[in-house]
Amino acid sequence: MNQEPDPQLERWTHGNLRRLPELSAPPSLLPRVLAALQAEARLPWWRQSWWRWPLAAKVAALAVFLASATALSFLGASIQPAADSLSTALDERLGIISHLWIALAALGGALETLLLSLAGNPWVLAAGAGCTALYLLSIAAGTVLVRYASREAGGLRHEK
Amino acid sequence: MSDTHHFEAFMQAYQNMVFSSAIRLLGNESDAQDIAQEVFLRAYAHFDNLSHSATAGGWLKTVTRNLCLNHLSRYRARWRFFSEMSAPDDESDFAESLPGPDANEHAGDLTDHHKQLEAALQKLPAAQRVPLVLYHFDELGYDQIAAQLGVSLSKVKTDIHRGRAALRRKLTTASAPTPPARALRS
């Protein structure tokens, strides 16, 4: 399954890449990380990561979470009959949607008939092809512009 | 030694490794710095365990790889449409478009051969560079890479092969030490 298509090229690449030394991290990395750590340390404890909360706060938060989850599950069980009756009432009220669906299906049928009758008309076909061509042209132009802009941005970064 | 000084020493020991892994996967210095910063912030949160762990390097490398892949997948969907439309053309002139030996500012202390290889690697399209780096630096198998990247095994093999061929083209056209004669033949 993992058969190598070109073992010589694989060995050559592996040898060269593995001989590459590590790159030096920019000198700004260490001060950046230390500054971020200091900024985080200045935050009040409740705005820091949960893992860094005091133990008592962690335990209290866990207890509140468990109590909420338990309460919600009991609440869910107790309101089950009420939810069932609400669902029945909604079903009755939403019956109007089925009427709407029938009207939309009829409209769709009429549109289909209209399109089938127009399909034989060469002018309609030509207009459709023209619109499609313009749409594709606009996508192509957008692609070219985006790639050009991103290359320019890359070039500027290298120049910096 | 205070905790901060201890962490500074830890960072100095590992920052080149983390930054190198990130920039080789991402091909972008600014993104690599952001990822390296995030890796060390996470390391600080687990510093009690990491500071005396023999596997700290492996932990850092894994976190770096995961964060880089997350970062790439976040942007991949956005750019996939545009990048795939002209991918074949990009490849044909890839070797010619590579920068000269001085283009990589982080390669100042490397030999010309290493500079060119590093620059060529970072200029590879992400679809080739990422699996190539995962294979040769992180030593993952083809199937592991396919699973990590969520692409087919055949695509991984093709992309890695194209990436290797592009690197070899670049290095053999430059005045770098030549690879074995048989390997030069395509």
Can you offer a commentary on this structure?
- The complex is a heterodimer of chains A (160) and B (186).
- Chain A has 160 residues and is mostly helical.
- Chain A has helices spanning 7-18, 29-42, 55-78, 80-93, 95-119, 122-159.
- The mean pLDDT of chain A is 84.
- Chain B starts with a helix and ends with a helix.
- Mean pLDDT of chain B is 79; it is low at 81-105 and 181-186.
- The longest helix of chain B is centred in the middle third of the chain and has 30 residues, at 56-85.
- With 186 residues, chain B is mostly helical.
- Chain B has eleven helices and no strands.
- The chains are: A mainly alpha (160), B mainly alpha (186).
- The interface between A and B is large, with 39 and 55 residues.
Please outline what is shown here:
The complex is a heterodimer of chains A (160) and B (186). Chain A has helices at 7-18, 29-42, 55-78, 80-93, 95-119, 122-159. By secondary structure, chain A is an all-alpha fold.
User: Beta-strand level of the residues of chain B, as a percent range?
Assistant: under 5%
Structural class of chain B: mainly alpha
Radius of gyration computed on alpha carbons of chain A: 33 Å
Uncertain parts of chain A: none
Poorly predicted runs of chain B: 81-105, 181-186
Work out the largest interface and the residue count of each chain: A-B, 39 and 55 residues
Structural class of chain A: mainly alpha
* Helix segment tally of chain B: 11
Distance between the termini of chain B: 57 Å
List the helices and strands and how they pair.
The complex is a heterodimer of chains A (160) and B (186).
Chain A: H1 7-18, H2 29-42, H3 55-78, H4 80-93, H5 95-119, H6 122-159
Chain B: H1 3-26, H2 29-45, H3 47-50, H4 56-85, H5 87-92, H6 94-97, H7 112-123, H8 126-136, H9 142-149, H10 153-173, H11 181-184
